[in-house]
# Entry
Amino acid sequence: MSIDDRALAPMIDHTLLKPEAVPAQIERLCEEALQHGFAAVCVNGAWVSLAARLLSGSDVAVAAVTGFPLGAGTSTAKAFEAGDAVAGGAAEVDVVINVGALRAGDGSLVEAEVRAVVEAVGAGVPVKVILETALLTDEEKVRGCRLAVASGAAFVKTSTGFGPGGATEEDVALLRRTVGPDVGVKAAGGIRTREQAEAMIAAGANRLGTSTSVQIVQGAGNLAPCRVGRARPPAADGKPYVKE
Amino acid sequence: MSIDDRALAPMIDHTLLKPEAVPAQIERLCEEALQHGFAAVCVNGAWVSLAARLLSGSDVAVAAVTGFPLGAGTSTAKAFEAGDAVAGGAAEVDVVINVGALRAGDGSLVEAEVRAVVEAVGAGVPVKVILETALLTDEEKVRGCRLAVASGAAFVKTSTGFGPGGATEEDVALLRRTVGPDVGVKAAGGIRTREQAEAMIAAGANRLGTSTSVQIVQGAGNLAPCRVGRARPPAADGKPYVKE
# Structure
């Protein structure tokens, strides 16, 4: 499978979530997103209004992360943060599921929380629910997908990029099988090369989160040995702050 | 320098911040804190009310993390989350500074944000401002300390435990020199052994955040080779989710 650059770019959330990122880096992220026609920039809440101003009037959305990356805040705080991001100009919200509650079998907490976030952002703002698949069994991944979809999530998403592992083809395929064709699947975490990006799409993803978007649409991901060497497999690069 | 167990325990925030932690682990954390007389348990927001119920009437406080671990939410969201934690029973709040804003020289954002958090939690709730020192130059660490103190922080704290490095003796000493004797210094991140704990206190810390608190007060930290091998130096263990 090979995908045209013009088809690939609108599937990419151009992502910068490192805590040390400064406004100048957010500005460059937005410029690159405009230049290449990415779906969105994916940023932390503090930079949403800056990005929204820079992308105003364009087709590039601002996606804000919420409860990120641990997902272990209260439902009240996560819903508030999501609504705050939309007030600041976010058009999409990527929220981390309460992993501990999911693992403990507390589906009602998970479901009510996702619903609270969906309600806080309002109609027309897609909510992507991050499962952090590397921390879950396959059964928990399936359960997380079902709870997210039942609560109005527009996408399920594999990973934060800050966990012990990123997106895998197996997980993307499992998520796609579980949610069916009408809900989005976003693959994120450790996607560094064109080859990886195409593999994720082949496995069922219709959105990708990556910080190496420019290289990926230029097909250059595989031509930079030091980058490939550092980044694959995702869990082995030893960097607590994965460069998403 | 050698410290008595009974003097050491009340300096320790017994910490469990892994996203995959389940309620049973929070319950055990609280039991251990009661048994050993730790200063606090340090938990994610979702578990504050559970911990507060279990520790009700005791001398063990609940410390809630906020804007954790990236510190890159909006000031509004961080202040809301801090107030929400206090409403849920938190008696202390550990908030991560906006690292990017600090690095970019936006001191007014940092100062206003810490002040908003201090006001949101109200009088009598100490706010610990986490600098994430591994991402900062010494000059930025000093500036972060001064902004935090000017805004009413009760403590400055080295690290989240999720960053590229944890507490070092040099950083603890720098923080102590900067804030003087009347503001707290909390060392956190990578503290696994009694030897490390005592070194942090010798360097100027008056509070420690660690998940190996029980071993530390029992002086057993140095007797478990596999644990020491995994954890020292903190930045080299290659685990994105440091077990704090």
